Amino acid sequence: MRDDMDRRAIGTLSVGHGGVDFASGAIPALIPFLVVEFDLGYAAAGALMLALTASSSLVQPLFGYWSDSRGALWLLPGGLALAAVGTALVALAPAYPIVVAVTFAAGIGIAAYHPEGAKFAAYASSARRASGMSLFNVGGNFGYALGPIVVTPLVLWLGLTGGLFAMLPVLVAALVLLRSLHGIEQLAPEPQAHTESAAVDDVGAMTLLGVVIALRSVAWFGLLTFVPLWVIENGGTEGEGNRMLSLMLVAGACGTLLLGPVADRVGLRRTLLLTQAALPFLVVAFVSVGGALGTVALMLVGLCVVGTFGVTMVLSQLYLPRHVGMASGLSVGLAMGLGGIAAVALGAVADTVDLETALYVAAVAPGLGAVLCLALPRPQPLVVPPTPAPVAIS
Questions:
Q1: Residues 6+ apart with CB under 8 A from 102
Q2: Alpha-carbon span 233 to 356, nearest angstrom
Q3: Radius of gyration over alpha carbons of the chain, in Å?
Q4: Rounded to an integer, what distance in angstroms lies between the CA atom of residue 279 and that of residue 49?
Q5: Alpha helices (runs of H) in 180-334, residue ranges in sequence order
Q6: Where along the chain do its domains lie?
Q7: Residue 159: HSE in the Cβ half-sphere, 13 Å Cα cutoff
Q8: What pLDDT, on a 0 to 100 scale, did the predictor assign at position 387?
Q9: Least confident among 146-160, 224-238, 321-335
Q10: To the nearest 5 percent, what fractions of the chain are helix, strand and coil?
């Protein structure tokens, strides 16, 4: 049994995670420019986020089932490449319906990567599961944060075509990951490790956790979609709006490095509860206070939400120990995908009433999630299966 995590393997998977989420993060950064290009309303802007999350999130459990039943390492470079191509086409699409279609295609690539990547990151983490999954997630979080940082100046310089050039490094990352598959494959435990385990799935606990994640995602996807538009509505520019979005995402990536080790020490459920309870107050502070304090509150939102992605992923894997890929697909995919649906509903509220009201509505959901956190059961102890010795990953 390995006592230490395989940091090189996690690093490789984290880089791929960074590439796929960079493509994902580029799309919210493109939304303000697409709103101008196609004269879109708030609901239509929210529909773009729904197209992304419906394909990148809601179908992830299907890829997780595929991963658990048959294994599909090729989904790692394949998903990364599809995400890059789809996002590049978002920037080149000549009409809004085509934008929606290629956004959906990019999301399929994003969905393909996550369950398989999270499963092998769990294998590489050994007993330090929360810390290992945080290292895996930090790549994705920094990649997502880089989306608006890189895409915004390129689009301001080159127009929407700049989104095409932003995706070229992602295609390079897909080729690098393709060369690393043999070493990653060696992380898988022996087949008998699964059959001999006495662990059982707790579907009820996973369902409750899924509701908690979904409520957290209502606030998160509302902010992802509407923070730049809120800044613009209050006299800012598209660039200023995307810079505010970037601050939230970078703070979230830093939160991943902080909260993973914290969760290993103080407990997964306690970490999730405290961060979830803080979210309503932070969102309200961002909207109502504004200025420097509002910016700090928004950054703390990123820390609390993104910083606990790894925590909820580990909890899901512990609640469904026999279906690790499916657990990852449910925690990252289905539950968070519901947040994309909420983005459309919040957009409708913004169109009907105003954007400020929509953001206040978004703040309520994680408060309900904090109450449900109190009912989450203690997960089964982590059983680390024996695995072969690490193989060098080229």
A1: 86, 89, 90, 93
A2: 10
A3: 20
A4: 21
A5: 181-185, 192-196, 203-233, 238-266, 268-288, 291-306, 309-319, 324-328
A6: 7-373
A7: 4
A8: 45
A9: 321-335
A10: 80, 0, 20
Alpha-carbon distances, residue 211 vs 18, 43, 206, 315, 355 (angstroms): 26, 24, 9, 13, 25
* Over residues 350-377, mean pLDDT: 92
Q: Maximum distance among all alpha carbons in the chain?
A: 62
pLDDT beyond 50 at 325: yes
pLDDT tens digit sequence for 193-246 = 444 455 688 889 999 998 899 899 888 888 888 888 898 888 888 778 878 888
The token duo for 221 is 């996807």
Distance CA 188, CA 180 (A): 14
Cβ 123 vs Cβ 129: under 8 Å: no
Query: What is the third-level CATH fold of 7-373?
Result: Growth Hormone; Chain: A; (1.20.1250)
Distance from C-alpha of 163 to C-alpha of 144, rounded to nearest angstrom = 14
Structure-block tokens of residue 377: 């059961």
Residue 324 banded pLDDT, cuts 50, 70, 90 = confident
Q: Which two tokens stand for residue 269?
A: 């459920």
Q: Identify whether the C-beta of residue 344 lies closer than 8 Å to the C-beta of residue 50.
A: yes
The reported pTM is 0.72
Between 135 and 302, residue with greater pLDDT:
302
pLDDT band at 127 (very low <50, low <70, confident <90, very high): low
Distance (Å, rounded) from C-alpha 271 to C-alpha 265? 10
Q: Is pLDDT above 90 for 6? A: no
Q: What is the CB-side half-sphere exposure of residue 2 using CA atoms within 13 A?
A: 20
| Cα(250)–Cα(371) distance, integer angstroms | 28
Do the beta carbons of residue 344 and residue 45 sit within 8 Å?
no
Long-range CB pairs of 185-192, under 8 A, 24+ apart, other chains included: 185/73, 186/387, 186/388, 186/390, 186/391, 187/6, 187/9, 187/120, 187/123, 187/124, 187/387, 187/390, 188/71, 188/120, 188/123, 188/387, 189/123, 189/385, 189/386, 189/387, 190/385, 190/386, 190/387, 190/388
